Amino acid sequence: MTSPPLHDRRIVLVSNRGPVTFTDAADGPLRSRRGAGGLISGIGPLVKGTDTIWIAAAMTEGDRQAAATGVAEAEGFRLRMLAVDPDTYHLAYDEVSNGVLWFAHHGLWDLPRQPAFDRSWPAAWDAYRAVNHAFANAVAEVAPRRAVVLVQDYHLCLVAARLAVLRPDLDCVHFSHTPFAPPVWLAAIPTEAGRELLQGLAAHRACGFHTQQWATDFTDSARQLAGLTPTTFVAPLATDPDDIKRAAAAPACQEALATLQAKVGDRTVIARVDRLELSKNLLRGFLAFDELLRQHPEHRGEVVFVAEAYPSRPGVAAYARYRDEIERAVAEINQRWGTADWEPISLSVEDNFPAAVALMRRGDVFLVNPIRDGLNLVASEAILVNERDAVLALSAEAGAWEGLQEGALRVAPFDVAGTAGVLHEAVRMPAEERRRRAVILGGIVRAHTPAQWLANQIAAAGA
Ligand code: G6P
């Protein structure tokens, strides 16, 4: 295949979730469709059609069938799907990556009870290492000489250490799309595993983060827990405006907007779009809305909270429990305040991208209140497609806060009453002030491009 180069050094991109996923071929030929997530919408368009090789885990049965074909081309990507034994993959992805590392980096543990590592831990950590080594072997096999290897995220911290042995000609960079655990949280992981993780990351030429705070948390952990001084760089990912605007203009989004409009009429809409995810702090967001209605009766019947929450990681038990708690809280709040013609909260738990983008267009206030978040692209996507000068109520613990604070209202994520106060301010904000802030936010978001983010990573490899 002859494709234009992305850069004068060949690039190999390595991530757990790929840009494309395949449907099971049981009923016909393998069919591909675009994968989910910010990495794909951000850099997919840059990489597509170039000679970049993207290596990703086979996560579905269809992916496994695609994996059997070696380097393939799908949706314009040069793709290598890596199939690992399903039990090993489950331990590495659900137990270690999502059940332990995600919790450490986002501060989600319930320390009097969790984490508690039992006899099953060593096997889980071995599986994590095995998956990382399988990725390293795949890179070693397909990477052109002196290629730059861009490793993404917490699933793949041990790839570079192995590649240093297998392919010393490659330059590896790591990028974390999450925050990084400060020493006090990382120390909760069994000591040897924590040290191996940090050594694995330090084996890269540099480790990148969306904010200076996450980079500092990483270097603190590396120094205190492993005596290491790794090189870091800071490069926030940006949203590709064309990609999200195309989604907003699509007929499916038009239809979803008409449905939404029929439901909300001319009421003020507080909106949120999230994965149904513990770090996103959905529960306190609904409790803050409850408090708003209690404190300010004038908003009853006038304001509606619309939430599009798409299900995530059903393999992690804490997520299912969190979903139950959220659904119970929403039912109680609707019961308490709702009337015959007004449902205070409309919560949809399904993967409905057109509906999510329609909500981004129609929302009057966006609540983005994560406990801790690597960046949060929803905030900038909403800014790019919103048609009503929406007010952004943004957690100071989201990586996006560093860039957007000039135009956003600040939310302290644990302060439910304070969040209610911010929502009150947002709902009542005069049109002129909304406009002023929307112009600032639009300017900031449009000034950054995914291409810059990618260039920063390649530069960090010394290329
Ligand atoms: C979020 C995070 C990424 C992470 C991804 C994994 O988007 O920001 O850092 O890689 O979740 O989600 P997944 O659904 O692939 O487990």
Keywords, separated by commas or semicolons:
single chain, 463 residues, alpha/beta, Rossmann fold, 2 domains, six-stranded parallel sheet, 48% helix
* CATH class category of the largest domain: Alpha Beta
Termini Cα gap: 24 Å
The distinct ligands, each listed once, are: 6-O-phosphono-alpha-D-glucopyranose
The helix count comes to: 18
Number of strands: 16
Q: Which fold name is given in CATH as the topology of the largest domain?
A: Rossmann fold
Helix and strand composition category: alpha/beta
What radius of gyration results from the CA coordinates? 22 Å
Which runs of at least 5 residues are low in confidence (pLDDT < 50)? none
Known CATH architecture of the largest domain: 3-Layer(aba) Sandwich
Give the strand order, joined by hyphens, for the main sheet: 5-6-4-1-7-8-9-10
- The helical percent reads 40-55%
How would you classify the quaternary structure? single chain
Number of domains: 2
Report the mean per-residue pLDDT as an integer. 94
Shape: globular
Could you give a short account of the major beta sheet?
8 strands, mixed
Say which CATH homologous superfamily of the largest domain is assigned: Glycogen Phosphorylase B
The proportion of strand residues reads: 15-25%
Would you summarize the structure shown here?
The protein is an alpha/beta fold and 463 residues long. The protein has 18 helices and 16 strands. The strands form 3 sheets. Strands 5-6-4-1-7-8-9-10 form an 8-stranded mixed beta sheet, with helices on both faces. Strands 13-12-11-14-15-16 form a 6-stranded parallel beta sheet, sandwiched between helices.
